[in-house]
Recover the amino acids of this structure.
C-alpha cells in the first residue's frame, strides 16, 4: 500500500517537474522563436500592432538585402577565415598540452604556471597594449592582427594537458621503438587517442571563432575585414529602425550555431565532465 | 629510452603557444602598467617623442572622473544583483533537471544551455527588438494583461535591470552544466539514507545537496563575479552606456576612452583599477570560502 502511494507520488512529481521545465524552456526560447519568425516578415508586418506570431507574407527579402546591399557575403567569408585560423590555434594548444603532459624538461613547472597565470588577466587590461603592440608590428587592419592575439589560450592548453597525461607512456615508447619521430608520435598516436577532447575543443573553438566580436571591431577599420558580428553591430547602428533586416542578420548568425550545437551538444555538455570541471 | 629524446623537442612543442601567450598576454601587462603613467594618445602612436611621463596623474584623474565613478556604481549594481540571480537560477534549473528521471530531461539541458553558445551581438540585437517600447513583444504581452508599457531601455534604473535580464538569460547555461556535473558527483546513498529517516525533499535539498555543492557554488560565484566586473557587450550594443551613462560599465568606460577617444594612457589607468578590483574581490572570496570550511 505505502509503496504504491510512494510510486504514485513520485510519478506526479515527475510530471509537475516536466511541466515546469517545459514552461521555463519555452520562455528561454522565446527570443530565438521571435527572431526567426520576424526575419521572414516584411517590414510593414513587423511594425504592425498587434504583432503577428507567424509571418503572414512569408519573404526572403530581408536576407537577400543583407547579401546584395550589406556585404554580408564578405563578412561571412572573413568569419570563416577567422574560424579556420582558430583551428591552427587549437593545434598549437594541443602541441603545448602534449609537451606539458608527456615530457620532462627544465623549467616545465614554472612555464606551466606561467601559462595558467595568463588565465587570470582580464581582457580589458591587455586590449590597449595589444593594440599598441600590433600597431608597432604594422598589423592593425590586417587579418593577422585579428587572428593572432586569440590564437592560443591557457584554458585549452590546460585541458589538453589534463587529458593527454592519462595516455599510457608505453604507447609512445612502442612507436618510438619503431623509429617514429616525436612529431609523428604526436600526430599519429596522441591526436587520434585525444579525439574526445579534440571534439569538445573543436566545437568550442568553432563557436568562439564564429562569434568573435570585440577584437575584430578594434583592429579592423576597413569594412572589407569585418566579421559577421561586427557587420551586425554596424547594421544595428545604421538601420536601427529596420527590425526585419536586423532579425535576418541575427538569424543568419545564430542558426548555424544552433544547428552545430544541437548536433554536438552531447559532446559539449559531457565535455565539461571530461575536463574535470566539477 | 627517455635519454635518447632530443632535449630540444619539448621546447619546440611548447614554443609557438608560449611565444603567443607571452606576446599577447604577459608582456601587455607591463606595457599597460607603463603607459598608464604616460599621456599617450593618437599623436603619441605615430610619434613617440610626444609621449611624456606624467606619474600617477591618470589614476588621480580617472578616480575623480564622474563618469568613471558612475560606471563603478553601475558595475557594482550588476554584480550585487547579477551574481545571486545567476547562482539561484542556474542552480535551481540544474536541480530540477537532475531530479527528473525520464530521457526528456536531457533535452532540457540543451534548451537551457543554448542561449550561452549563441552570438552575443545577435542576441543583443534581438533583445533590443523585444524591448522596443512601441513594437517590442514584451510590452505587447504586458498590454494584453493591461499592464502599462515599461520603458525597458529608456529609464536609467530599468535599463540596468533589462541588461541584467539579458545577461542572466545567457549565463544560466554554462553554470547549470557545472552544477549538473557536481550534482551527479553526489553519492546516491546519502539520499537513500535520508529517505529511510523520512527526511522531506526540502530537508534533503538543504541538508545534503546544497552543502555538498559548496565547491561548485564557490567556483560559479567567482567566475560569475569576474564576468560581471567585465560586463561589456550588452551595454555596448543595446544602450551604448545610456541613458545618462546609467548602464556604462567600467569595461565600457575603458573601451570608450581607449578606442573611441584614443586616450590610451588614461584608459590603461582605468583598466588597472579594474584589474586590482578583480584581484581584491577574488581574494576576499577565497578568504570567505576558507572560513566556511573551518566549522
Amino acid at each position: 500500500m505505502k509503496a504504491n502511494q510512494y510510486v504514485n507520488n513520485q510519478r506526479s512529481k515527475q510530471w509537475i517537474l516536466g511541466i515546469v521545465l517545459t514552461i521555463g524552456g519555452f520562455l528561454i526560447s522565446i527570443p530565438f522563436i521571435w527572431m526567426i519568425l520576424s526575419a521572414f516578415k516584411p517590414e510593414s508586418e513587423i511594425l504592425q500592432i498587434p504583432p503577428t506570431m507567424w509571418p503572414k507574407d512569408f519573404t526572403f527579402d530581408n536576407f537577400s538585402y543583407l547579401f546584395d546591399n550589406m556585404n554580408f557575403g564578405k563578412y561571412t567569408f572573413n568569419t570563416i577565415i577567422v574560424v579556420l585560423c582558430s583551428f591552427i590555434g587549437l593545434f598549437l594548444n594541443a602541441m603545448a598540452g602534449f609537451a606539458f603532459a608527456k615530457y620532462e624538461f627544465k623549467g616545465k613547472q614554472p612555464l606551466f604556471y606561467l601559462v595558467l597565470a595568463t588565465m587570470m588577466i582580464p581582457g580589458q587590461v591587455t586590449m590597449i597594449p595589444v593594440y599598441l603592440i600590433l600597431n608597432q608590428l604594422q598589423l592593425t587592419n590586417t587579418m593577422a592582427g585579428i587572428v593572432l592575439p586569440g590564437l592560443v589560450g591557457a584554458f585549452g592548453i590546460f585541458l589538453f594537458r589534463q587529458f593527454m597525461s592519462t595516455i599510457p607512456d608505453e604507447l609512445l615508447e612502442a612507436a618510438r621503438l619503431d623509429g617514429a619521430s616525436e612529431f609523428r608520435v604526436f600526430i599519429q598516436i596522441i591526436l587520434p587517442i585525444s579525439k574526445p577532447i579534440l571534439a569538445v575543443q573543436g566545437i568550442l573553438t568553432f563557436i568562439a571563432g564564429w562569434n568573435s566580436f570585440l577584437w575584430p571591431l578594434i583592429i579592423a577599420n576597413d569594412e572589407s575585414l569585418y566579421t559577421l558580428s561586427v557587420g551586425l553591430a554596424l547594421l544595428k547602428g545604421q538601420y536601427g529602425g529596420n527590425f526585419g533586416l536586423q532579425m535576418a542578420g541575427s538569424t543568419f548568425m545564430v542558426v548555424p550555431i544552433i544547428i552545430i550545437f544541437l548536433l554536438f551538444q552531447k559532446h559539449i555538455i559531457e565535455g565539461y565532465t571530461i575536463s574535470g570541471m566539477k | 629510452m627517455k635519454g635518447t629524446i632530443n632535449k630540444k623537442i619539448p621546447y619546440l612543442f611548447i614554443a609557438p603557444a608560449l611565444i603567443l601567450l607571452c606576446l599577447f598576454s604577459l608582456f601587455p601587462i607591463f606595457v599597460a602598467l607603463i603607459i598608464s603613467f604616460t599621456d599617450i594618445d593618437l599623436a603619441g602612436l605615430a610619434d613617440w617623442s610626444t609621449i611624456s611621463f606624467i606619474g600617477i596623474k591618470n589614476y588621480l584623474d580617472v578616480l575623480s572622473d564622474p563618469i568613471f565613478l558612475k560606471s563603478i556604481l553601475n558595475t557594482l549594481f550588476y554584480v550585487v544583483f547579477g551574481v545571486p540571480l545567476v547562482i539561484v537560477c542556474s542552480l535551481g534549473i540544474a536541480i530540477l533537471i537532475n531530479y527528473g528521471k525520464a530521457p526528456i530531461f536531457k533535452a532540457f539541458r540543451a534548451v537551457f544551455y543554448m542561449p550561452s553558445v549563441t552570438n552575443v551581438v545577435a542576441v543583443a540585437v534581438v533583445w533590443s527588438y523585444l524591448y522596443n517600447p512601441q513594437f517590442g513583444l514584451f510590452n505587447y504581452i504586458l498590454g494584453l494583461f493591461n499592464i502599462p508599457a515599461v520603458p525597458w531601455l529608456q529609464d536609467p534604473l530599468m535599463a540596468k535591470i533589462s541588461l541584467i535580464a539579458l545577461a542572466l538569460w545567457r549565463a544560466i547555461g554554462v553554470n547549470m552544466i557545472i552544477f549538473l556535473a557536481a550534482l551527479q558527483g553526489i553519492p546516491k546513498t546519502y539520499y537513500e539514507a535520508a529517505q529511510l529517516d523520512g527526511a522531506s525533499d526540502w530537508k534533503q535539498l538543504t541538508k545534503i545537496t546544497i552543502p555538498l555543492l559548496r565547491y561548485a557554488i564557490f567556483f560559479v560565484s567567482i567566475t560569475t563575479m569576474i564576468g560581471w566586473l567585465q560586463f561589456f557587450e550588452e551595454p555596448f550594443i543595446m544602450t551604448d552606456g545610456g541613458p545618462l551613462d546609467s548602464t556604462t560599465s567600467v569595461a565600457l568606460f575603458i573601451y570608450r576612452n581607449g578606442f573611441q577617444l584614443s586616450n590610451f594612457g588614461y584608459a590603461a589607468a582605468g583598466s588597472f583599477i579594474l584589474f586590482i578590483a578583480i584581484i581584491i574581490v577574488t581574494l576576499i572570496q577565497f578568504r570567505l570560502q576558507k572560513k566556511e570550511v573551518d566549522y
Notes: The two ends of chain A are 40 Å apart (CA to CA).
